[in-house]
Amino acid sequence: MSHRSLYAVGVRRSALTKGLNMTNGLTHHVRGFSLIARCLLLIFCGLSGSMEMAQAQTRAYVTNLGSNTVSVIDTATNAVVATVTGVSQPIGIAITPDGTRAYVTNHFDGSNTVSVIDTATIAVVATVPVGIGPNGVAITPDGTHAYVVNDGGGTVSVIDTATNIVVATVPVGIAPHGVAITPDGRRAYVTNASSGTVSVIDTLINAVVSTVSVGIFPQGVAITPDGSRAYVTNTNPGSVSVINTATNTVVATVLVGDRPIGVAITPDGTRAYVTNSGFLGSTNGDTISVIDTLINAVVATVPVGDSPIGV
């Protein structure tokens, strides 16, 4: 297997909150499903949410929440060529830039761990204890550190990928969900769902250097290829906050569909694609909003299937 050609596809908890949001012990009902029913639906459907692409195109890695596995897909044939065991209710996944390791968050099993997969042997080679409820994960562009958001503990665990040891724990806001790292590796942007904020971590000192107020229940976050903007989905009132990363201030708010979750930016940085998962009785869900990043306005709305999550 080439280590230079990999994709990673995973369900992050930030991508599951339509049915799994819990605030102050309250269950949020969505499309008529309670928390428990939605959990079962996700497990039985084998839902895969957000996608993170590594540097090439020969393998895609998919976390399977219900079967406690990771599927490896050959992107040339679109066939599953391997199945990784040794993970437990996996959610998030990220691959190192050199393609040699995949980091998988084990969220729902209570182990509070990250499994490290060797992509050459297709086996788990390390299990790293982190904080409570690990979900989103991102790796620095130089591949030296993995940043894992722990939504149950309100922290980010920083893993040294050379030793697979947590070298720092960074307190952030309440119920952190998504994480994205700037192209220069200097900043990590973390959405804090129950705080309505984004924590900006300086990766040199592993400390929060700025806290940006955004919309209600922020979830997904993506950064433009030039590192100048961070796009954050806010499930209520259905908007995207655009953060200037030089000043860490919100410079635009773009109204999108109902209950947006996932966000991804095109390689040329000209478009942001946002999944609008909708809710019970929603009239503006089950769509993708396409944002022109030059003018920060929706230029297209694409109907898709029921409850889109990842993109």
List the keywords.
five-stranded mixed β-sheet, 311 residues, mainly beta, disordered N terminus, four-stranded antiparallel β-sheet
General description of the model:
This protein is mostly beta strands. The chain is 5% helix and 51% strand. It is built from two helices and 27 strands. The chain has a five-stranded mixed β-sheet, with no helix packed on it. It has a four-stranded antiparallel β-sheet with strand order 8-9-10-11, with no helix packed on it. The two termini are 26 Å apart.
What topology emerges from the helices and strands here?
Layout: E1 6-9, H1 17-20, E2 22-23, E3 26-27, H2 35-45, E4 51-53, E5 59-64, E6 69-74, E7 79-84, E8 90-95, E9 101-106, E10 113-118, E11 123-129, E12 134-139, E13 145-150, E14 155-160, E15 165-171, E16 176-181, E17 187-192, E18 197-202, E19 207-213, E20 216-223, E21 229-236, E22 239-244, E23 249-255, E24 260-265, E25 271-276, E26 287-292, E27 297-303
Parallel strand pairs: 1-5
Antiparallel strand pairs: 1-4, 2-3, 5-6, 6-7, 8-9, 9-10, 10-11, 12-13, 13-14, 14-15, 16-17, 17-18, 18-19, 20-21, 21-22, 22-23, 24-25, 25-26, 26-27
